[in-house]
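Our platform keeps sequence and structure together, in a single record for each protein. Because each token names a local backbone shape, the row as a whole describes the fold. One such record is reproduced below, unchanged from the form in which we store it:
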Amino acid sequence: MRYFEVRRARIEIIPMIDIMLFLLVFFAMMTIRMIPTSGHLSKLPTSSTAAKIPPPKLLVEVKDDGSFWAEGTVRSAAQITEMVSSKNPKELAVTIAGGDRVTLQQLMLAIDAVKSGGAIQIGLAAKTKTE
């Protein structure tokens, strides 16, 4: 008499676990993309007069070896100039960040590359002494 046997309802949780894992990964990736900087620098120089500014439209990082890092890749000074000039430089806010071991000459090369592209809104990244 299999026809009259009552079957109990089963809740399948494996598809629900798959969906929850997908949502977790999705929100983690979106959160990572919302961070404006790439997070390569660990030691910014300190300044007692550092002020908060809005997130930059372009962040140029100067590495200890003198290389430039912008938009996720290493770039030369000529490539930085070309990148700035192609992005409406009069309204482009550029922030230049360098570690505490970056020389003044390396920093000036980055500023010259950005200015050669036509940008006029240039900021230098620093931490306040209390951070």
